[in-house]
Amino acid sequence: MIKIKYLFPLLFCLPITVFADFFYTAVMEKQTGYSEQIWVSKAKLSHLHRAITDGWKEGYAITDISHAPRKWSVVLSLGTQVEKQLYMSRRLIAEFDGATRYYLERGYEVVNVENGVGEWLAVFQKGGSYRDTRMHISRDFDEMEKIIAARTEAGYSLIDMESAEGEWVALFAKEVPFKRSYYHIAENWDEVEQTIDAAWEKGDSVLNLEYGANGWFVLLATYPQRHIQRVIRNKSFKKLRNTIHAGWQEGFRITDLGEGRR
Fold this sequence. Notes:
By secondary structure, this protein is α+β, with helices and mostly antiparallel strands. 24% of the residues lie in helices and 46% in strands.
């Protein structure tokens, strides 16, 4: 794990902002191996259950779950090599941590973490591209940086990060499809774009864009071969969906959905 630079302490409580600054984001990529993809959005997490279970029956697997104001979204993909999958949610972080440990002890890997409207959610699976996964939680970002450094020293890679309710939640894996992952803290979206452009110039890829109050956590990775990506930002959910549908026609697939402010 390589840290480019640390610019400022992120605050965790959502500030009072105008929705004019709000926008949706999506990362799309060509080298995912996914043959087909479905994207479903509902007002409540429970309303996604039918779409998820129907997708599992047809061989799809969850490849991303995200939350934006008044909207939960799930991305289901074919061609993931995932053998079995489930998701779990809890309101209290301590209960969420305990439930995650329960599934890890039973041979599952934790591959995605998300928070929305006071609910913590994790996706677990058997099979797929991540092995020997771990989750760490801290209320202090300086402490989380130490955890990341220690896990990196032990041969793990950071694969996902979530910041919400005053908590940092990080996922690590020992077996990953890339050579290394690293991160950058950006104060605004302009800096996010500069960071992504610099990564692409080197042949690296975007794994995850996470917005915490007052800043962005940009997770990047170096793959054995260059991946073709595009990052989409739009204030309109409808226009975002139209752009993603156009990307699907060009062979791109969603790898990360998010939301944030400039």
